[in-house]
Structures are given as C-alpha cells and as structure tokens.
Amino acid sequence: MALEHAILVSLLERPGSGYELASRFDRSIGRFWTATHQQIYRVLRRMETDGWVVVEHVAQDGRPDKKVYSATGPGRQAVAAWLREPVEPETVRHELAVKIRAAAFSDPAELIPEVERHRAGHAALLERYLTGADRDFPDPDVLDAQEQLQHVVLRGGIEYERMTLAWLDDVLATLHRLARTPSNPQD
Fold it and tell me: What positions does the domain Transcription regulator PadR N-terminal occupy (predicted)?
C-alpha cells in the first residue's frame, strides 16, 4: 500500500487539512500505516499535481488560509483500482519474539522489565481503542456502511491487542517460572 491510498481513504471518509490528516494518522490510521507530517504534506502536493485531490482555501481570522483537501473522481478511481489488487500476507518482524527466544542463552529474568513495558503499551492502546469504540460507535446497530467498515477495523485492532496481551501474559508467566528455576543449563 502506498501512502497515497491511506490518505485517499481518509479524505474519502472526510475532507481535511494536512494538519487534520496528520492528526487522523496519529489517532487511527497510523496504527495500520505510519507517516510523518512532512510525508503527508509531500504526498498531498504530489496527489494534487496528479489530480487525485483538490484544495479549497478556507479563510481564517488572524491566521493564514487553511488548505482543505478533498478526493477527486480520479482519486476515487485510484482507490477502486487499488481495492481490486491482491494483497499479500504481511511478513512480521518481531524483535521482542527473537529476544524471548534469546533469553534461553542468558538470564530469562533480565527480559521481564522489557516484556512488562510492552504489555503496558499494548494495555494502554487497548484502552484507547475501547474508549474510541464507545465514543464513536455507541450504537453499533445503527451504523451506515462506512461506519460499519470503520467499526470492523477497530474491532480487529481491539482483538489484536487482546490477543497480544494474552500472549505477553503467557511470556511473563514463562519468564517468571524460568527465573525461579534454580539451575540455568546455559550457566
């Protein structure tokens, strides 16, 4: 997926300024596709040149005009074409998993603080997702098609975080058990 597609999806959901897009990336889309503010602005300029977005200049009191971007017909067609392309399963690089395996060759207890740090981060993210679900989708039975698709992606994120937390709890239990073992065969 190119950054262009992630931006177009966001603009099809709701037009916005570069700053608003960057905030959306920080808040939601960024969990699936990350981009810096500079990358977003650079891609927006290229998409404008390619005719995938248009810019409306909105006057603001005491500040420079705000540029509000919207997807065009060609931008919508680009998303439709991209949607028909096959997606290969992602290859996951998971440094923590490799470290967990490496703990067999050292003191497993040394890895406990790092796993606890990861667990805290995933727990906080799960809480953000759950808060967002309650705030943005209070009545899932009355969602339009766009909202249903946004909600199903959010539910996937929630389930992923729950699965990750369960796995990290298992890792911590294993590390604690090994830390109590009187003899480490690698010593």
Answer: 7-80
Cα–Cα distance, 11 to 7 (Å, whole number)? 6
Model pTM?
Answer: 0.78
Return d(Cα 170, Cα 186) in angstroms, integer. Answer: 22
Neighbour count for residue 78 (Cβ, 10 Å)? 20
Q: How far apart are CA 104 and CA 171, in angstroms?
A: 13
Q: What is the pLDDT of residue 89?
A: 84
Q: Determine the Cα–Cα distance for residues 127 and 123; give it in Å rounded to an integer.
A: 6
Chain-centroid distance, C-alpha 83: 19
Q: How confident is the model at residue 187 (pLDDT cuts 50, 70, 90)?
A: very low
Distance CA 141, CA 148 (A): 9
Q: Supply the mean pLDDT for the chain.
A: 90
Specify the residue for token string 């490496």. Answer: 102
